[in-house]
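Justification of computing resources. Each target in the renewal requires a structure prediction run like the one illustrated here; the chain below, 476 residues long, is used simply to show the kind of job we budget for.
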Amino acid sequence: MRKNMLLGLLLLAAAIVSGQKMNSNKKAAIASVEKHKEALIQISDSIWALAETAFEEDQSSKILADYAEKNGFTVQRGVAGMPTAFVATYGSGSPVISVLGEFDALPGISQKAKPTKEALNEGAAGHGCGHNLFGAGSLGAAIAAKELIEQGKLKGTIKFFGTPSEEKFFGKIWMVREGLWDGVDVNLSWHPSASTRADVQSSLALVDFKVEFFGQAAHASADPWNGRSASDALELYTAGINYYREHIKPTVRIHYHIQDGGQVVNVVPDYSKLWVRVRDTKRSGMLPVYERVQKMAEGAAILANVDYKISLISGIYEVLVNRAGGEAMQKNLELLGPISYTDQESAFGKKIQEVTGKPQVGMDASIMPLEETKEHPGGGSTDVGDVSWNVANINLGVTTAPKDTPWHSWAVVACGGMSIGHKGMVYAAKAMGMTMVDLFEDPKLVEKIKSEYRERKGDEVYEAIVPEGPPPIGGN
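Resulting structure tokens:
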């Protein structure tokens, strides 16, 4: 009890200090998020329960777009050839500040909002990356900025981008290709995490493609000599990839999923298919590896005496970091102070850590200091990278799950459907709303962020890694 009282006093002291430094517009942004908090939680929970996957987020997208429209935004739906993509806009003139909102789920990880593994709907999808929180929190920040513009306290334009299919096809690429960020000065994005920090680390560039082999079917016992096995080619190809791992740089990642290796044991398979991803910390390092593994597919086809086909799905850039934006975000995190958790929430977090075999330390409420940007970070990939090569971008991570939680797992789904996730979502909305206030109020800050963006981008000419034609709606 004494420990909790001391923590409460420290938080109160921090709040008093923060209040002295926080201007009226930032206080108003926080008040706006508080005013909409219950609605934002309801939106998040609805999207969490729907758990709609890539390009199938019809109801999730509608919930967000409808609430934006209800709050005075002009909403353009079905942008860039994607029925679930939309742009909500309010205001006019400069600066133009945008914020990203994701809302797609991951297949097969349905989970109840409880700290032991138990599916909500067996075999269904779940929000194992917290995108139900992502979209709702970003919309809360956009509404806070909108209300200040509406009241005449800020001038400019706010845009909320509803961005589908981050987990599979990377919908933002087609939105970038459509020029939807043209004229935007600064973009903001956040992501659920196991810690709270202004994110000044990059991500991994990625290319996503499928390989198909076409052979000749035959009876696997009576006349196998009349067959040419597509499955043989697939196995030769994956063996080649796995031998290649010894000779690639530590920053590279190659992984694959066999989607069709044949249907029955007594038929020489005439068809096989696998989905392959190649990543590196830099697009320039990823492309040569991509070229090599494409040649391996040809080699495997020659060895098995079959035909082959490679189909590009999409590819994404690494995130272009902006430290000036990160510094502005960091100041607002320090103004807000850390998230506080109840004893019940801490126990929930510790139970998840127990079940997943992690140290039972509970929630990490601390605000991480601004890190040095690493040349070669680890981690995953995101189509936020493509946005960041077209407009200056500020990233934020906020605690929505206990420390060391396995991401893309049932454990993240569980937290996203209860108060731990809700608190992180509301916190993210406040932090981004406050940072938007800085951007609308301070033209010098906007120019500093844009200047760093231009310097880091240099003479790189952005080229989207997508095949010709529309997004793969209904693809597999």
